[in-house]
Amino acid sequence: MSMNPLVAPSWLAARLEDPSTIVLDATLPPVGVTPPVDTRAHYLERHIPGALFFDIEDLSDHATPLPHMLPTPESFSRRMSALGVSDSNTIVIYEQHGVFSAPRAWWMLRTFGAQNVYVLNSSLRTWIDSGLPTESGPVHRAPATFHANLNRNAIADLAQLKDRLARHQQVLDARSATRFNGTAPEPRPGLSSGHMPGATSTPFTDLVEDGRLKPAEKLHEYFAAKNVDLHQPITTTCGSGVTAAVIALSLEVVGAQNVTLYDGSWAEYAQHPDSVIEKSS
Known about the structure:
This protein has helices at 9-13, 39-45, 56-59, 73-83, 102-111, 124-129, 158-166, 177-181, 216-225, 244-253, 265-269, and strands at residues 6-7, 21-25, 52-53, 90-94, 116-120, 155-156, 170-173, 200-201, 208-209, 212-213, 234-237, 259-262.
């Protein structure tokens, strides 16, 4: 049985003085907001004491035109070590508002072999509203040693995804229902909306309430209503690989054992000329 990846604010508050516990703010700017929100500046203004900024955009692979792709293990090892994060630390990730990008940081760290990675079951906003402490300004940790060890079973490429679709394996899509149905446009120019044949629409916003992940029993009900078999392989996808991790985190909470994230997601799939795109309302 996998561990519960969520921790309560009180659990983290009790460990803020523990040098082996590392807190990361992994807030990505919300999509489609102009000018873009400077989440690093917001981090510098106010963060959980001792928290480091985990810049998903900056840490992604910039050798590909696809957004937010996993970097190489060597690159990730180097960057985490410089940040002061070891793969043996207890790592707790949060974001500034709601649930959007922290699960992607959790998934990246887990996929590169860190064992004790958790997501704070609360946003910074709720942490502050609970009267828990914050600080401002940059945070520096001494360099550490992070040995990235990529779990290839956690990640799917386009060829694997197409094979799974052909074999009618479960593919859960975190994009909005209107993008899935093809009735709303994609935020990325030139990409058709719609969905992969046989995919199930599971908008990541359905997995969230009151700014946090729904409780386990509600997640169980939700996946059951979507006819998701938690004992069979599941591949998660979205627009760029970020909110697919919200589904992956939710599936971890309900005990699914065989979950893969399709890192290229719709940004890759929809631009391939031989990809089948279905539309339905």
